[in-house]
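Ligand-bound model needed. zinc ion.
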Amino acid sequence: MAKRRKSSASVPFSMESLREEVDIEINNENKGSRILADLGSLNLNRLDHVSADVVLCSIIVKFGLSLVGSIAGVAPSLRVLPLVVQHQVLKILCPTVDEGDRACLLQCVLKLPKFPLADNNTAFHVFTPPCDRCSRCHSQLASYNNPVLVAYHHLNGASKGVKVSLKCNRCGIYYGYSKYGNPGSGWNLYDEPRIAVEATDVCFVQRLLLRWHVSLA
Ligand SMILES: [Zn+2]
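Prediction:
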């Protein structure tokens, strides 16, 4: 309910003023319903010339804030992956969402410059190399195996995640989440700090959680 427009001190209560206020409320609700219906009816495959704000509102109306926020939260990781791998990852993370809707969601979310509510509390996590190009020859990295479902333990509990490694086909260098190299030339850590530690092949732990755990031991 909207706030009363004028204080009762300045306008004495009357049935007429109450009726006027109710009419305004109903009118505002009708406007809101029409806006929601318009946003829900947008064709998400034809939004090239629509502002990012409208795209964001439209996909939230269609798919819900939780799903959109979760996918938007992993958008920076998805961006380093080849397109075909992006779709594979999303299929693992939200298998119940229709394939067409997944493709549409991915396309829309990757267009958004920054999702205002995306943070580390999202339901999904995607562990990829921090780069999409080889540090030696600057070639585009390619996929070399299928994305793997992993468990992720963090300060807010546990979530499911997906791990993806890439490879430079020119240099034969593998790029994992936490290191890059190959068995012949050795392995290197990235300059960029990684928020999680790869505890096993299928389990990641938030670095901050690990620090707390060690300090409490
Ligand atoms: Zn290379």
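The beta strands are 124-127, 142-143, 148-154, 157-163, 166-168, 173-175, 179-182, 186-189, 196-200, 203-206.
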